[in-house]
Amino acid sequence: MSKEKEFVTPLFVQADGINDCYKELLKGILEEGQIIVSRGLETKEIRPVTIILSNPRERFLMCPSRLIHPYFQIMESIWILGGRGDVDWISYYLSNMIKYSDGQREFHAPYGKRMRGWGHHRDTGLNMAGNGFEVDQFRSCYEYLKKDINTRHAIMSFWVPFFNQYGIETIDRPCNIGFHFLIRNRALDLTIFNRSNDIHFGLAGVNVVQFSVILETMAALLGVPVGNQIHMTNSLHYYTESDLTQKVLIAEYEFNPYEHIGYGHFQFEDDPPSLMDLDKDLRYFFEEEEEIRDSGSSSAIFGFTFLDDALDVAMSFYSYKEGNLDHAYYAIEKVQADDIFVTCSEFLARKITSSEKSREVEAMVRERFKNKLSAETINIILHYILTH
Question: What is the separation, in whole angstroms, between the first and last Cα of the chain?
């Protein structure tokens, strides 16, 4: 007699943003997942999983029981959008990234290079760009959608068989293997196809932010509203050796920032802008960010408001690394997007060691929101920033 077939346990979740569904996803894995050991590491996994974020602008996870690195989230998003894959630039914001580089100056499978320059590879023996095979997939999707609003051809791939075949030795293989843009119901949707997602540090830690930035940028270029961001993964998991899942699930209080504050809308001087305008701003941004690292200052202004905020974020992080918390907070005060202000303020508050500095930060937060929010709501935000 043949053994009865065991069926997979799919998970479907729909929410406004990641803050609304993070714990629900964790509970799904905990209660319905199975133990899988891969590469010698034990995980608890559920599959397949579909997550629909109906308001992907609510991109920043702010969970009282875990630490988030918003500076890295923001800068990696721009690094990807700009088509980069160099280790030095991004590891300035998170030094741990170096361990995924295979000891090379460029990553094996950086999303930015594969998105804006498919065919390029750090290894000249694998590089197809020299033979004319380099493709800007972001531009291709943009042109498809601009020509035909109902097209189903706006697809990009991050898994390149030639680079990712079995014999290639690397620890950097793309977890997210493809994008599909669709304009439906007069708004732009983005579906992300994913082979493997660590819920804490992959999905919620970086991917939701990165890909919502790409989605919103594409929507702005096309002059259409932002629609749904859909993550389809065949392995959503967490590592069982970590106690982070339990810490999140038993947290004493909840904080969803988007119940209290808004998010920044991406705006350009020209509406809608051209892709050439965007790329010009991106090049200028990288130049000015390098100037901050060299001299600690920049006064640049961009046509793209997200880059304006990101440059203030870069200035704040420079001051943070230099040990100047006052200047780090001064720079973050200038950020236009309230969600970026709150999440970066919480990150900086982890370095506060005096009650005097806590009072200064409290005054700054109250001043920012005094004409927008009630005193009770401001207290909720302050509790997250200062006591997390």
Answer: 57
Amino acid at 144: Y
* CA gap 255, 316 in Å, rounded: 24
Q: Cis peptide leading into 272, omega within 30 of 0?
A: yes
Q: Which of 226, 250, 189, 231 is nearest to 18 (CA)?
A: 231
* Whole-angstrom distance, CA of residue 67 vs CA of residue 116: 31
Instruction: Decide: 332 and 341 in contact? Cβ < 8 Å.
Output: yes
> Smallest Cα–Cα separation from 63: which of 208, 193, 197, 230?
208
Q: What is the CA radius of gyration of the chain?
A: 21
By CB atoms closer than 10 A (0-12, 13-18, 19+), residue 108 is: buried
Please give the pLDDT value at position 1.
Answer: 44
In single-letter form, the type of residue at position 321 comes to: K
- Chain segment 232-282, per-residue pLDDT in tens: 999 999 999 999 999 999 988 889 999 999 998 888 887 888 999 999 999
Ramachandran category for residue 126: left, alpha or beta (phi over 0 → left; psi -120 to 50 → alpha): alpha
Quick count: other Cβ atoms within 10 Å of Cβ 371?
Answer: 6
Task: Provide mean pLDDT across the span 96-101.
Answer: 97
Q: Which amino acid is at 91?
A: S
CA distance 226 to 55: 8
CATH homologous superfamily, domain 11-259: Thymidylate synthase/dCMP hydroxymethylase domain (3.30.572.10)
Residue type, 42: E
Q: Which residues are catalytic?
A: 175
Give the alpha-carbon dihedral of 37, 6, 159, 188, to 10 degrees.
-120
For the chain, give every domain's residue range: 11-259, 275-387
Q: What is the pLDDT of residues 310-359, one digit of tens each?
A: 999 999 999 999 999 999 999 999 999 999 999 999 999 999 999 999 99
Residue 44 identity (one-letter amino acid) = K
